[in-house]
Amino acid sequence: MESEKHIKLSELNNKISDALTDRFKGQTFWVVADITNHSYKADKKIHYFELVEKGTTSNSIVAKIVGKAWGTGSMHLSDFEKNTGQRFTNNINVLVLVSVDYHPLFGLSLSVLDIDTNFTLGILEQQRNATLKRLVEENTFIVKEGEQYITKNNQIKLRAVIQKVAVISGSNSAGLEDFRHTLENNDFGYVFEIDDYPNIVQGDNNAKLFLDKLIEVYSSGKLYDAVVITRGGGAQSDFLIFDNYNIGRAVAKFPIAVITGIGHQKNVSIVDLMAHTQTKTPTKAAEFIIAHNRSFEQKILSLQKNIVIKSQQLFLMHYQNLSHLKSNISNNTRELLSGHKDALVSINQNTINSSKSILYQEHRQLLSLSHQISGKPRIILYNRINDIGNTIRNLKTFTNQYLRNQKGYLGHYSSSIRMMSPENILKKGYAIVKINDTITSSTDTIDVGDTIDVILADTIFKTTVKEKTKYNGRDTDL
């Protein structure tokens, strides 16, 4: 088979290049696309990337082309980053002015000539507004009043003095150093207890780590006066984490007052709106805490000053009252003394006269009583001597009679004792039983075979018990 006519690949590419040049020469297009696979050659100031379009119902890519920006286009991208605070990087949606290029070696590409700053800002703002609307609609503890957001967190009343602070910040970040330096080197000598909770504070994909850090602060069991979220600045994309729905919701509901010092000057993040207090930088957050404590100290100093002034006023007023009272007392005392002096003189004279009369009457009564006393002891003594004589005679009579009676009683008791003595009872035919040299009257202590002593009036029998029977008691039945 005869070979067909062929051309070199470079010739074909040149034909494609010529066709595209003829078709798109001098034409530019505004294109909406997402940025992927971005890289930047700083020495040449050239951006390399891909422009992609995703499906409206899924994230599948429906179109893709290589892109680059250099020269004027690269300068416009730098202006875009300065104006928006957003880095030109992956995963941002942009509106760019492009021209179509084709190179026989590198293929088809688009050159970015310009970028619409307002378009990107609008996309970010739309996303932010949608998140804020969702926060209000889905959470009862977030309410929008005018342009303000009322949250559970910003309704917390700050403690009079903030001393224990938990800080969520990037590890070894300049913002954290600024915050610590400002707090620890304040002009008023305030002392703070600062606990660091280091975390990644950039990138929306790190939201879960940030939430875990908030939970760690809450679960620490420490009674923090405030939680401070700091970051030392950066590109706008670095702050997307602070527009995250879940983080905004957690801050709005957090039971400890949250103070933000995130460090972005252009916009206010959702976390700023949900937090108790929003400041622009970590340094400003520290200054806010110091100013809060200073305000409390000034109130105390003002109160102390007012107390001193009021005390001095009260002292002066009461001192004047006391002086006036002292003067009145002195004057009234002199008047009273003068008025009662004459009365005392009259009472003194009456007392002297009355005392003389009373003494005379008492003297007469004492003389009469003295005569009575001197005669009565003789009569009393005579009567007592007679009483004693009668008592002695009665004692003699009653003693003799008592002794005779007792002697009769003793004779009776003596006869009874002799009749009941063991010797007399043994003579009447009774006996005493002893076992083991012990007198017993109970048969329970004697068993058959025991040796016992039977004592009569004049004889002792030693005998062995052969039989033990119950006695009916007829021999002694009288």
What does this structure look like?
The structure is a single chain. This protein is an alpha/beta fold and 478 residues long. Among the domains are: 9-115, OB fold (Dihydrolipoamide Acetyltransferase, E2P) (Beta Barrel); 132-295, Cobalamin-binding domain (Rossmann fold, 3-Layer(aba) Sandwich); 425-469, no CATH class. It has helices at residues 9-24, 72-84, 117-138, 174-184, 207-219, 245-253, 270-274, 282-419, 422-427; strands at 29-41, 46-54, 61-69, 93-103, 107-115, 142-145, 148-151, 164-169, 193-198, 226-230, 258-261, 277-279, 432-435, 438-439, 451-455, 460-464. The strands form 4 sheets. The chain has a 5-stranded mixed beta barrel with strand order 1-2-3-5-4. A 5-stranded parallel β-sheet has the order 9-8-10-11-12, with helices on both faces. The protein has a 4-stranded antiparallel β-sheet with strand order 14-13-15-16, with no helix packed on it. The N and C termini lie far apart (175 Å). Keywords: Cytoplasm, Exonuclease, Hydrolase, Nuclease. Belongs to the XseA family.
Question: What order do the helices and strands come in, and which of them pair?
Answer:
Layout: H1 9-24, E1 29-41, E2 46-54, E3 61-69, H2 72-84, E4 93-103, E5 107-115, H3 117-138, E6 142-145, E7 148-151, E8 164-169, H4 174-184, E9 193-198, H5 207-219, E10 226-230, H6 245-253, E11 258-261, H7 270-274, E12 277-279, H8 282-419, H9 422-427, E13 432-435, E14 438-439, E15 451-455, E16 460-464
Parallel strand pairs: 3-5, 8-9, 8-10, 10-11, 11-12
Antiparallel strand pairs: 1-2, 1-4, 2-3, 4-5, 6-7, 13-14, 13-15, 15-16
Helix pairs in contact: 4-8, 5-6
